[in-house]
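User: My instructor asked us to take a sequence, write out its structure as tokens, and then describe one feature of it. I'm not sure where to start. Here is the sequence I was given:
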Amino acid sequence: MNQGIYSDLSIVTAKFFLKFAGVWFTMDGSEERQRLAALLWVFYTALYCVYVNVVNINHYWGHDMSCCVFGMSNLLIITMAISKVIVLRIRRLELADVVVYAERHFWHYNYSFEEQLIFAKCQRFCKLWIIFVFCILPASISGYVTTPIVYNIGRNKSDREFPLEIRSDLPLTETPYFELIFTFQVLCVLTLGVAYICPDTFLCILNMHVISQFRMLQWKIMNCWVCENKQEDSLEYVNHCSAAMKECVRLHQSLILFCEKLENVFTMTIFWHMVIFSLLVGLNCYQILLADTPIARRSIFMFHVVGSFIHLIIFAYCCNGLMEESLNVCSTIYFGSWSTLPMNKIGRMLRLNVRLIMLRSMKPCYLTAGGFFPVSLETATSLLSSTFSYFTLMRKRFMRNDSQ
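Assistant: Let's start with the prediction itself. The structure tokens for your sequence are:
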């Protein structure tokens, strides 16, 4: 077996996102100062963006609903991002415990050939997930940058626009103030975008590794009854099976404990995402299909809606896979050769272990949204249904206002 330090693009990238958002745990005073600076920067950018959007909503309220909806969408994105950062900051010790456990038991090369095949599939999925994040995040943020650039073509210096509209009597559109504020706002949007996506990115990666561990457990259970020494008598064979089954029981217990730790750390981040998702995407669909907005601004919501839908499906798929693979442990052990073993003391103890692991695996491991409901593919379809319901209500409301 290959003994070495595990290094993977998906995990390194997810850790960088969490460090950028200021929620990663630290090992010394220097890292703690860097983390605190990153966290203060995130909150400062959030407060600045909230102030700008609230002022714009108040200014356009009653005569330009499109700009109001744009500001509301931005406020919902900021709320979702900051709520996730606050939750992970509060749960930082539990998050450190989860990462340390994963580094010791999941992220290594000490696997058999069959386990390495399962692990390689997990690695490929995580890399594809990170590539998607790298593609959709810049695409969504680029809309905030390209919109004012398109607007500013052919305009003079006194009539230039920013990514986030600023209402002030100061000469902010003059050089160099315009360039400085423009760059600052782009950095604010980038920071909040990373804070928005980083908790779910890391959680999906952890989920996929737990799923692969459950698949490895199933493979070990199927091989409990395989004996390399064909000359063993029945007593030695029972001892071999019993020792292998005890190892599987310990591994199953550790995986259940790890899932409980995941639930404790991320349940509230999932909750805030599920609560805000439908309303946010409904507002975005209104901006794309109904509002009288320029194509450059509309591209912001197009990329965000597409990314949000794919993000939701992948996240629900990971959570649903965790439920399925933890349930599959029961059927895997049931179809083993435990019933053919002799009914001696060791054989009866082995059957007891089989019953215990079967009973426990009949209750699947899952992640919940604030403890209210487990997240699965059914949750994704329900959220999509509620999203279109919100969009229909907004459409009827705004059409009624236009007719009046």
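For the description part of your assignment, you could build on this observation: The chain has a mean pLDDT of 82. Try explaining in your own words what that tells you about the chain.
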